[in-house]
Amino acid sequence: MIEELNQKISQLIDNDLDKEEALVLLKKMKQDPVLQAKLSRYETIGHAIKSDVFLSVDCDFAARVNQAIHKEPVYLLPKRKSVFNPNIRLSALAASVALLAVLVSQGFLSYSSSESLNKPSLLIASNTESEPLNSLAQASRPVIPSDRPLETKAGTVHSSVSRFAEYLQAHNSTRYIDGGFERQPYARIVSYSQE
Amino acid sequence: MVLRVQQGDKSAYDLLVIKYQHKIIQLVNRYVKDQSEAQDVAQETFIKAYRALANFRGDSAFYTWLYRIAINTAKNYLVARTRRGSDSELDIDDEEQVHNINELKGLDTPEQMLLNDEIIETIRSAIEKLPEEMRIAITLREFEGMSYEEIAEAMDCPVGTVRSRIFRAREAIDSKLNPLLG
User: Fold this and answer.
1) Whole-angstrom distance, CA of residue B45 vs CA of residue B30
2) Phi, psi (rounded to 5 degrees) for A86
């Protein structure tokens, strides 16, 4: 039995014991100064072989350290702080829902307004076959906000559209027209070739 | 064991001290030649390590971490001792300078030196008298720092045989050493 323990001490020095065995052995050694003295002599032999120096360790060294340690307060492993505490998580969720609601409502409004704005354009597009130049002029016509009557707007804009068509005829090139009319984005590529 | 200490089990730290005390004292003794002072520095090392153990994340092995604390504690001790003793500057990274200063301090008494020589001679003599397989096994382990597996490969024998040979070699040397230590 003692020889078996001594062999395990020899293995402990050489890191040849698994964790469980080492733990059991160290617990036995803590209770038994004879085993501690054996460990000390084995270590001394190893050190003497390597360095030609005899180094004695006081047999009460571990006890002195332990005495000092037991006067120390307990230093616990700091607990991991949760990145999101429950209040922050709820606030974040509420903010996300509110933002989503705003985005959805805005998207719905812009969709419904663009629906109403597209109607005149479709009407204009239906006339393009019979009157090419005129339809071009009509296609480039700015969008009319839905709160204004379409008929009156068409009459006032007609002369400027004609002038614009002439301008295109003269320059024979491609133009981008941004008919930003009261914050309603609207763009159309207009081109004309004299040939 | 480390985790148990981190969870507040102080008694687990006792086991770590028992396991590593000799290695730490031997390490510190390379810097602080006086054995009594080396033990004081080693004790300080263990206390510092205990205080810092909550910050030990296990990124390295515990002994590697403890090793660094021991080296720093020993160097700090030497700096403090030099400041107390003289105004001369000490380059603590210069091992030779550390060694010379320790030698000049004349910390070994003649009695200690005599005992040291006698013990070393006893150990050498015991090793020479060992059977060849045991002598080779203990030499490869202690001099070369080879693992049991490496020794088994070098000696072309099972690991269990190596384990047994090293243990029996230690026992044989210890039987000669123990009477001297009283």
Assistant:
1) 15
2) -55, -40
Same domain, A65 and A9: yes
Please indicate, yes or no, if residue A19 is contained in any of the structural domains.
yes
Q: Which range among A67-81, B10-24, B113-127, B155-169 has the greatest average pLDDT?
A: B155-169
ipTM exceeding 0.90, yes/no: no
Whether residue A152 is contained in a domain is answered as yes
Q: Does A111 touch chain B (CB under 8 A)?
A: no
User: What pLDDT, in 10s, does the model give residues A89-103?
Assistant: 788 888 888 888 888
Q: Tell whether pTM > 0.80.
A: no
B170 and A42 in contact by Cβ < 8 A? yes
Burial code (b: 16+ CB inside 10 Å, e: under 16) for A161-181 equals beebbeebeeeeeeeebeeee
* Cα pseudo-dihedral B20, B26, B28, B34, rounded to 10: 130
Tell me the residue type at B119: I
Q: Provide the number of structural domains found in chain A.
A: 2
Contact between B47 and A65 under an 8 Å Cβ cutoff? The reply is: yes
Query: What is the rounded radius of gyration, in angstroms, for the C-alpha atoms of chain A?
Result: 46
Contacts of A40 (CB under 8 A, 6+ apart): A57, A59, B22
Tell me whether residue A81 is in a domain: no
Flag whether residue B170 sits within 8 Å of chain A, measured between CB atoms: yes
**φ, ψ for residue B90, nearest 5 deg:** -120, 125
B173 neighbors B127 (Cβ within 8 angstroms):
yes
Please state, as a whole number, how many other Cβ atoms lie within 10 Å of the Cβ of residue A69: 21
Domain of residue A55 covers 2-71
- The verdict on a CB contact (< 8 Å) between A43 and B23 is yes
CA distances from B120 to A62, A116, B117, B173 (A): 25, 104, 5, 11
Instruction: CATH number of the domain at A31, please.
Output: 1.10.10
- Final residue of a structural domain among A41, A71, A101: A71
A141 within some domain: yes
Which tokens hold the place of B57?
């994340």
